[in-house]
Design a protein that fits this description.
Elements: E1 2-7, H1 11-22, E2 27-33, H2 36-42, E3 50-54, H3 62-69, E4 74-79, H4 85-90, E5 95-98, H5 103-120, E6 125-130, E7 133-138, E8 142-147, E9 155-159, E10 164-167, H6 172-178, E11 184-188, E12 191-194, E13 198-201, E14 205-211, E15 217-221, H7 227-234
Parallel strand pairs: 1-2, 1-3, 3-4, 4-5
Antiparallel strand pairs: 6-7, 8-9, 8-12, 9-10, 11-12, 13-14, 14-15
Length: 236
């Protein structure tokens, strides 16, 4: 089911979009807004996965709105003006639908969105050969991952209950593809951090909730190459 939110400054346009959405299978309009600032205040606590944004609006246009939410929601732009197309796709949006909107064209945009949502959905577990045999590990139990000091081809996983498990012969690139991007990021060449384990962070360092010797909290350095990935993770 696609749960969408509509933002358009024209009430008639909102009513028309709602009507079209009601005629498309597996699409539900959760909320509609005609003020970009109210939309931005409420969007993070709204249960939706697609935002339909009008581009041409007074005060704050749809492109400016998209820049603030593009990391957390999929976006479909609607506009009567074709000159925004290139700028819209620079924001990596799902689709750009010209007004007047037709049901078939909107359905096509939702189909694209559904495919992207399916691809971005990760399993809530990983399955791999470990030091205790082939093992299923639930991702919401993972607190921290680091390269093994014994064999750099292996990765040590620390679970939230303190259990340590060694993933055999698995590189970070493939491991990150198995993990939900909304919950994990690589902090440096040797460490991956779970969002749930972050206590505080700065530009260069994460202080985790993981206790180590002498009741100190584990600190993870953020490599320059990985700062954006960490920032994107922790700003969600």
């Amino acid at each position: 089911m696609i749960k969408c939110v509509i933002l358009d400054d024209e009430l008639l346009a909102i009513s028309y979009l709602k009507l079209l959405c009601e005629q498309i299978d597996d699409v539900e309009v959760v909320k509609a807004f005609n003020d970009p600032r109210i939309f931005l205040n409420e969007i993070e606590k709204t249960d939706c996965n697609i935002c339909i944004l009008d581009i041409e609006m007074p005060g704050m246009n749809g492109l400016q709105v998209a820049e603030q939410i593009s990391g957390s929601k999929k976006i479909i732009f609607t506009t009567a003006y074709k000159e925004y197309a290139a700028e819209a796709f620079d924001l990596n949006v799902v689709d750009y639908v010209r007004k007047p909107i037709k049901k078939e064209r909107l359905a096509q945009a939702f189909e694209k969105a559904a495919q992207l949502l399916q691809k971005s959905h990760k399993k809530d577990f990983i399955e791999w050969n470990t030091n205790i045999g082939k093992t299923v590990i639930f991702t919401d139990q993972i607190a921290y991952i680091k390269t093994s000091e014994i064999d750099s081809r292996d990765k040590e996983i620390l679970l939230s209950d303190g259990t340590n498990i060694v993933l055999k012969n698995l590189n970070f690139k493939n491991l990150l593809e198995m993990l939900p991007a909304k919950d994990f990021a690589q902090a440096n060449k040797k460490e991956i951090i779970a969002r749930s384990s972050v206590k505080v962070f700065s530009t260069n360092e994460i202080i985790t909730t993981i206790l180590i010797e002498n009741n100190n909290f584990l600190k993870v350095q953020i490599g320059e190459t990985y700062r954006k990935a960490v920032s994107d993770l922790l700003s969600r």
